[in-house]
Amino acid sequence: MIEIICNEGGVRLDKYINIEDFSRSRIQKLIDDGCVLVNGAVAKARDKVKEGDVIHIDVPEAAPLDAMPEDIELDIVFEDEHMLVINKPQGMVVHAGAGNYSGTLVNALLHHCGDSLSGIGGVARPGIVHRIDKETSGLLLVAKTDLAHTSLSAQIKDKTAAREYICITSGNMTVLKGKIDAPIGRHPAVRTKMAVTSKNSKNAVTHFVVTEQLNDASVVECRLETGRTHQIRVHLAYIGHPILGDNVYGAKTNPYGLRGQALHAMRIRFNHPVTGERMEFYKEPPEYFNKLIETLS
């Protein structure tokens, strides 16, 4: 149990609470789960604290982790005692979920890192700072310590960290450079999909540049300003150019034999969570990208 006695008033509860190694989202979840009491009463995030208020925070014990370590080869781009940068292959699930209890990136990390993974991301996703879809390949940040996790998560939120992707879209895009600013939320009819919608959505911004025009297709580089679920896939489909191989937001047919969307997280920039050094990593797209470009040229 953590006790805090307020020394100022007029501040929202979720903004007033500041605990070392606790991300803002983790504090928000504790409040939403009823784990935060103010003067003995369950409080809401929007409640304003008053000077002299006594805040009690009950941090639940971590649930045991079901995922087991598995000896799966990892493409490690960078590693030190604080963090890793991993190049995730297409087809690998990041963390365990329905139908995916083994063979995930988390299973591989548990084998490689042992106990040296942060726990802030939740028991199902130890060390995972952010995620990419199963059929998206590319660079991911993994935290070994809670301090590193907090720093890297904050950098993604405040846009200090930059993530850039490359993809191959359907059709020749007439606008060669621009910004897609359209809110994303759950699809109103299909709950497993996301959609551009004004209802129960969050702002989403994707910057794009067309680098090559192919035969009824385009090579596009995208930079995320926000990080919504399926953001690039949803935004490009929204402007009429879904990613090739994406049978969720694009064509159901797959004439090129792709195993998923032609999308790769190619570059990531961030400040090292401990030293503060600006770091940048780049990974070429998988070989199938080049073969697809050759086919469409």
What would you call the shape? globular
Q: Give the CATH topology of the largest domain.
A: Pseudouridine synthase
Beta-strand content estimate: 25-35%
What's the CATH H-level superfamily name of the largest domain?
Pseudouridine synthase
Global Rg = 21 Å
Query: So, CATH architecture of the largest domain?
Result: 2-Layer Sandwich
Low-confidence segments, given as residue ranges, are none
Give the strand tally: 16
Q: State the CATH class of the largest domain.
A: Alpha Beta
**Number of DSSP helices?**
6
Structural class: alpha+beta
Distance between termini? 62 Å
Total domains: 3
Order of secondary-structure elements: EHHEEEEEHEHEEEEEEEHEEH
Average of the residue pLDDT scores: 89
Please estimate the helix content.
Answer: 10-25%
Quick one: biggest sheet?
9 strands, mixed
Write the layout of secondary structure elements.
Layout: E1 2-5, H1 13-16, H2 24-32, E2 36-38, E3 41-42, E4 54-57, E5 76-79, E6 83-88, H3 105-113, E7 137-143, H4 146-157, E8 162-170, E9 177-181, E10 184-186, E11 194-196, E12 201-202, E13 205-214, E14 217-224, H5 231-238, E15 263-271, E16 278-282, H6 287-296
Parallel strand pairs: 7-15
Antiparallel strand pairs: 1-4, 2-3, 2-4, 5-6, 6-7, 8-14, 8-15, 9-13, 10-11, 10-12, 13-14, 15-16
What does this molecule look like?
- It is a single chain.
- The protein is an alpha+beta fold and 297 residues long.
- The chain has 3 domains: 2-57, Roll (Structural Genomics Hypothetical 15.5 Kd Protein In mrcA-pckA Intergenic Region, Chain A); 63-158, Pseudouridine synthase; 160-297, Pseudouridine synthase (2-Layer Sandwich).
- It is built from 6 helices and 16 strands.
- Strands 5, 6, 7, 8, 9, 13, 14, 15 and 16 form a 9-stranded mixed beta sheet that branches. Strands 1-4-2-3 form a 4-stranded antiparallel beta sheet.
- The longest helix has 12 residues, at 146-157.
- It starts with a strand and ends with a helix.
